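A quick word before the example. In earlier lectures we treated sequence and structure as two separate objects. From today on, think of them as two lines of the same record. Here is ABC transporter ATP-binding protein written that way.
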Amino acid sequence: MSDNLLTLSGVHTHIGAYHILHGVDLAVPRGQLTMLLGRNGAGKTTTLRTIMGLWRASQGRIVFNGQDITALPTPQIAGLGVAYVPENMGIFADLTVKENMVLAARGARNASAIDQERLQWIFSLFPAVEKFWNHPAGKLSGGQKQMLAVSRAIVEPRELLIIDEPSKGLAPAIINNMIDAFGQLKAKGVTILLVEQNINFAKRLGDTVAVMDNGVVVHAGAMKELAENEELQHSLLGLAL
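And the structure line, produced from the sequence above:
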């Protein structure tokens, strides 16, 4: 089996009249955390949504765990062990934290049917999820909503976790908490693909990195290499990490 859990080859995506992705080639190594970086509008979110089948690739091929998923509907892709946390977090504001978690644990009809050992592990990562268990999710702070969104994604074991800007708008203490959580997930063998604007976050967590610009991947390699090369950072991102 390939060392890459997910591979995109020549992927194009059109949204209406707009041609957003122009032949994306991306490899996500198994068991590693891959950072997807790039300026605003480079095509990062479109890439994630295309992987999940929320937007359909108009050309190219997406392979997950040896299976071609290019034309699969989103529920089938999720059923293969892929979890997606969108930038807007996708939680149900009118439901309680508990009800959000039960919905995400597809095999559970109620909270007691959730794997309790896994739930306690999630509580240890994100104490706010336990603290506000019976509160409406819509009343949570931005950081607490992000913790809930990630908790929902990992309430069942997943092969691949895809997350769009998890640190956006979060306080430094919560960002550190999030970094610790992703570190623990990686240690458990979960493969993670992360879009992130917080460069510190990227440097501390990333194993590999792909940089996008104008709908294509313009650089791919080790995160360490990019983090240590200011000239490369300027040319790719217009800034120094």
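Notice the following. The chain has a mean pLDDT of 91. We will return to this example when we discuss secondary structure assignment.
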